Amino acid sequence: MGMSVTISAATAQDAEQIFRLQYLCFQSEAALYANYRIDPLVQTLDSVREEVAADCVFVARLGDEVVGSVRGRVTEDGAASIGKLCVHPRLQGHGIGARLLRAAEASLVEERGAKRFRLHTGHRSENNLRLYRRVGYETVGTAEGADGVPMIVLEKPAGTYATTA
Questions:
Q1: Once rounded to an integer, what is the mean pLDDT over residues 129-151?
Q2: CA 14, 122, 124, 88: dihedral to nearest 10 degrees?
Q3: Residue 102 belongs to what H/E stretch?
Q4: Where are the beta strands (DSSP E) in 48-145?
Q5: What span, in angstroms and rounded, lies between the C-alpha atoms of 42 and 44?
Q6: Handedness of CA 75, 81, 83, 85 (dihedral sign)
Q7: In the chain, what percentage of residues exceed pLDDT 70?
Q8: Which among 10, 116, 135 has a CA at the least distance from the CA of 71?
Q9: Which pLDDT tens digit goes with each residue over 62-81?
Q10: Which of 38, 44, 73, 152 has the fewest CB within 10 Å, making it most exposed?
Q11: Does residue 58 contact residue 70 with C-beta atoms inside 8 Å?
Q12: d(Cα 55, Cα 101) in Å, to the nearest integer?
């Protein structure tokens, strides 16, 4: 009998699993840009711990294993900045990313008063762009990441939560 993937708020005890999962998941992104210095790959475990303590962080679990994660925080302009969405490569394509987004969006509105959602992804990250557009995000601009990667900035109003893809 198989187990179901559950979505819940992250705890301090999840930080190390989130850190390892993030490193695994963002290898493919780094390969797309031939840049292994992207933020998720150089972030420290202590920094992940700080984010888990301060930000809105959700995890997807399969039993005791963290198989997905997303983080968000409300910025000064009332937008919720959502980032570092990742799902274990063996479980991608099953709607877990959309479920994580929906959980983070709901919490950011209900608990932190977000007015809209904003996220960004690399300009070559077609799978990410497809997911974000499917759940209602629209391109609003471009930016350059601190690592030099060209990014596409996407937003949507806070009244529209992600639907399962």
A1: 93
A2: 0
A3: helix 96-110
A4: 56-62, 65-74, 79-87, 116-122, 138-144
A5: 6
A6: positive
A7: 95
A8: 10
A9: 999 999 999 999 998 889 99
A10: 44
A11: yes
A12: 14
Q: How far apart are CA 50 and CA 30, in angstroms?
A: 24
Task: Please identify which residue in the block is written with the tokens 């700080």.
Answer: 50
pLDDT confidence tier of residue 99, bands split at 50, 70 and 90: very high
- 84 Rama class: left (phi>0) / alpha (psi -120 to 50) / beta: left
Measured CA to CA, the distance from residue 162 to residue 164 in angstroms comes to 7
Q: Report residue 78 as tokens.
A: 């009332």
Residues listed for the chain: 165
- Write the single-letter amino acid at 17: Q
Crossing angle between the packed helical segments 15-25 and 45-54, to the nearest 10 degrees: 120
Instruction: Give pTM, 2 decimals.
Output: 0.92
Residue that the structure tokens 């900045």 belong to:
81
